[in-house]
User: What shape does this take?
Amino acid sequence: MKILVCITHVPDTTSKIQFTDNNTKFDKNGVQFIIGPYDDYALARAVELKEQLGGSLTVLNVGEVDTEPTLRKALAIGADDAIRINAHPKDSLFVANQIAQIAKSNGYDLILMGRESIDFNGGMVHGMVGELLGMPSFSPVMKLEVDGDTVKMAREIEGGKEQVEAKLPLIAGCQEPIAEWKIPNMRGIMSARTKPLQVVEPSNDEVATSVSTFQLPPAKGAVKLIDKDNVDELVKLLKNEAKVL
Amino acid sequence: MSILVYLEHADGAVKKTSLEAVSYGKALADKLGAGDVIALGLGSIAEAELAKAGTAGASKVLHVSDERLTAGIIQAHATAVAEVYKSIGASTLVLAKSSLGDAVAARLAVKLDASLVSNVVELPDTSAGYQVKRSIYTGKAFAVTEVTKEHKILAVKKNAVDLKTDGAAAAVEIISVNLSDADFAGKITATDKAEGDILLPEADIVVSGGRGLKGPENWGMIESLAKELGAATGCSKPVSDIGWRPHHEHVGQTGVKVAPTLYVAVGISGAIQHLAGVNSSKCIVVINKDPEAPFFKAADYGIVGDAFEVLPKLTEAVKALK
Ligand SMILES: Cc1cc2nc3c(=O)[nH]c(=O)nc-3n(C[C@H](O)[C@H](O)[C@H](O)COP(=O)(O)OP(=O)(O)OC[C@H]3O[C@@H](n4cnc5c(N)ncnc54)[C@H](O)[C@@H]3O)c2cc1C
Assistant: This one.
C-alpha cells in the first residue's frame, strides 16, 4: 500500500489574524504554524493504515522553506519520507497541479488530505487533483477502511452520513472522527531528523485566482447583559429589538 | 451567455441555500446584464420543488431526473453539470457552499477550465477586472479575490444574499445527460440521517449546549428550548468527543459551520475554535455562569447564570410569547 498525505502549513487555530503592507500580506508576526487540523486527521489515519497493511507513507507540502518544520513534524508522527514542492501555494489550482504532477509519476494507491485548509477554507484541492488524475475523490470522509482493493468510507452529509464503497486508487478529503490525532514521541522526533525530505521545483505555474487585498470584519459591539431573573426581557429584546423571533 | 445554478436537495426538497444561490445568480445577471438564470436539479425532485427556483429568480429550470443522481455521487454530478453548462453556453456557474457543493465544484473547475471562488459573500465588483469578496480564516477575515479565467464558478456562503421570493413561476424542462460507469465509481451503500430533526447547517435558529450541561441526561433542557423555538440543536466539540451528542451536531472550526439568524449557546466557553463555526450568525445569545467566559465578547445578548436555572425559565418565556 502506497499512501500520499498532503498537508497544509497554517496558522494555529487560536491565532489573531492580521495583515500588513496595506492589507496585501498575512502578518506572520507572533503566529505559530501547524499542520492543518483536517490534514492531521488524514495523517493519523494514514499512519494507522500503514501499521495495519504495510507499505509506504509519504507526506507532501507545497510551500517555501519555512514549512519544513511542519513536514518534519509529520515525519515524527509516522511518515517515511517527505516532499516539499518549493513554491508559495498561490491558489488551489496551482497546488492541485503540483500534487497531480508528483502523483502521476509515483502511482499512489491512496491520496489523503484534509477536507479543507483552515486559512483559505476552499475545500477544493482533493476534487481538483481527482479530476486532473481521472481518479474518484470523496469528501468529507469521516471513516475509511481498506479491505483488499475495496475502500469503505463514511462521508458526512448534512444532518448525517452516508456509507460509500469504492475501489483503489482514490482520493479522500478527511475530517474527524476518522482517527485520533497522533502526538509525536521522542523516538519519532529523533528519527524524523534523518528521514528523507526531498525538495522539488514546481512544474506548472497556472493559477485561476489571486488575492488583491484582505479585510477584517467590523468590530463587534458590546454584549447586552440581561439579569438572570428577568428572562422575559431577553425574549422581548429578541422579538422587538433584534427581530429574530 | 447565461448563468447556471446547481441545485442541491435533501430528500427531494430543494435546499434553502440553493435557492439563495439562485437569488445570487439573478442579482448577478441583473448587475452584469449576463442573460438568463437557469437552475439545474439532479435526481428525484418533485416538480413543485424545482419550480421554487423560479420564485427565487430563475427563468428556467432544467431537470435531469436520472434516479442514479438522487444521491450525491460527486463525479456523476460534476459530469452532469459540466455537460449542461456547455450545452447552454453558460459563462458562470453559481452554487451554495456545502460539503457536496465544494466537492462537485472542485472537479468542475478543472472540467470547465474555470476560476472557482468559494465562501463568496458579495456580488462581484467589476469596476476593475472581476473581484469577488470571500470569507477566509474560518470567518475571521475576507479576501478580495481577482478571478482570472473567462469561466467562473462562485460558491456562495449561506445567508450572504437575501432570498428572493417574488420571481415568476419557471417552466421545468426534463433533459438527459451522458453518464458512464466511471462516473459512478463510488457506490453509496447506506444513508443514516437524523430523522425528523431540523438540519443543523440549514437551520434558522440553533440552540447549542457545551460541557457546562454536565451530562447527556440534561440535554432534554436544550431540546425543549429548541422545540419551542423551532430550532436545530448543536454542541461543542468535547460534548461530541465524549459521546454525549452525535458527531454531526458538533459546531465549530473542525465541525459544522452554521450561519443562523439566532444562535443560543448554553454552557459553552466560547473558545476561538467554537466561535469560528458560529461567527456568521446574525444574533448570538450566551448563557454561562462565568461572567468572564470569552463567549460574552462575541455575543449580542447574554445572561450570566446557571443553565439549570435559566433554561427552563427561558423555555417558558418563549412559550408564553406564542
Ligand atoms: C484544532 C482544534 C480544533 C477545535 N475545534 C473545535 C470545534 O470545532 N468546536 C468546538 O466547540 N471546539 C473545538 N475545539 C475545542 C475548543 O478549543 C474548546 O475546548 C471547546 O470549544 C470547549 O467546549 P465547552 O465550551 O463546551 O467546554 P468548556 O471549555 O469546559 O466550557 C464549559 C463552559 O460552561 C460553563 N458552565 C459550566 N457549568 C455551567 C452551568 N451550570 N451553567 C452555565 N454555564 C456553565 C463554564 O463557565 C464554561 O465556560 C478545538 C480545539 C482545537 C485545538
